[in-house]
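Weekly sync, protein design subgroup
Attendees: M.S., D.O., the rotation student, P.L. (late)

Item 1: inverse folding check
M.S. brought a backbone from last month's batch and wanted to see whether the design step gives back something sensible before we order anything. D.O. pointed out we never logged the input encoding, so this time it goes straight into the notes. Structure tokens as presented (105 positions):
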């Protein structure tokens, strides 16, 4: 299974607390669409205020909606040139191979 990770990098001149507030607003929008419990379960994201980066896992319907809300809000609030977005496919963790047990009869 492959999911999409979107990484947002913001200009250094933008206050980190404003970026964080926009992420919270986006989460509230996702909650309005999917409910608080489903958003908490499926809207995986990180925010690094020092690096001014936000990463959103868009591998679920909730994550995709959070991603759409966030890009819409940040573009309107900060302008399209204040943020750079990269998309990376992320492979799901692989199951560990088990060591074969000897068969004795």
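Designed sequence read out in the meeting:
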């Amino acid at each position: 299974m492959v999911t999409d990770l979107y990484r947002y990098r913001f200009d250094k001149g933008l206050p980190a607390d404003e970026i964080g507030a926009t992420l919270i607003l986006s989460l509230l929008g996702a909650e309005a669409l999917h409910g608080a419990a489903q958003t908490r379960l499926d809207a995986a994201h990180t925010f690094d205020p020092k690096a001014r980066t936000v990463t959103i896992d868009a591998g679920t319907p909730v994550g995709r909606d959070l991603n759409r809300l966030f890009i819409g809000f940040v573009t309107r609030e900060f302008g399209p040139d204040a943020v750079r977005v990269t998309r990376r496919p992320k492979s799901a963790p692989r199951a560990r191979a088990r060591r074969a047990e000897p068969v004795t009869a």
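Discussion: The chain has three helices and four strands. Strands lie at 2-10, 45-48, 53-57, 83-91.
Action: P.L. to compare against the previous round before Friday.
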